[in-house]
Amino acid sequence: MMPMNFEPFKIVPVGYVRKEPETHIKILPEFREATEGLREGDWVKLVLWFHESDTPEKRRTLKVHPYGNPKNPLTGVFATRSPCRPNPVALYTVRIHRIEGSRLYIDEIDAEDGTPVVDIKIFVERYDCPKEVPIEEREAEIGAGRTIGEVNIIPRKADHLDELEEVSPEEYDALILEIGPKTTTLTAKELVELIEALQEVYENLPVEIKDKLRGMFQ
User: Fold this and answer.
1) Which residue, 88, 119, 199, 214, could crosslink 50 as a Cys pair with Cβ 3.0–4.6 Å?
2) Sign of CA dihedral 93, 98, 104, 110
3) What is the biggest distance separating any 2 CA atoms in the chain, rounded to whole angstroms?
4) What is the pLDDT of residues 111-138, one digit of tens each?
5) 112: domain range?
6) Which of 65, 95, 125 delimits the end of a domain?
7) Keyword set for this entry (predicted)?
8) Rounded distance, CA 115 to CA 50, Å?
9) 3 domain-assigned
10) Are residues 94 and 140 in the same domain?
């Protein structure tokens, strides 16, 4: 049996939960640059540190009555949302309603005013709401992914295509398409249809815009 390592490691707050005048995250000045790319309307995952539960006694609590109701049977904290746990980490999925300087105004949450925020991650359906998808993570060519606006395009790896001789374009899933937090896949046939549709949109652009675009990409 491997020995347990209780050697501490460092976590620093990047901001704090504030409740007035509305619930928001106040980002510390030294981390303000890390918010670039966040937009109003984005869904994000908040990682908080429940500092009021950061006591030796509460860290030793391994079972609780869910919802604090003693009528509920004792349950391991990993199967609950209890703030009492070996490491008092809290997770929330919230929407950014507006951004004002270093303040991210979000949905109402039950964290106390002054709760430290230790991380913010953009919500991605593929990771945060896992479901069976035609293209498994190991088959995605992550390094070839492209971000265009709020759209992420991740192609499927081209390995072992010789084994797919019997697969039709309607059956072969060619890429993962992420639009904001939403994820879908496109078959090879749908990819061609998308390319044709985009080409049609491009051809209908004003001549002046197309001329400027040609100058930009030459």
Assistant:
1) 88
2) negative
3) 71
4) 999 999 999 999 988 778 776 667 777 7
5) 15-125
6) 125
7) S-adenosyl-L-methionine
8) 6
9) no
10) no
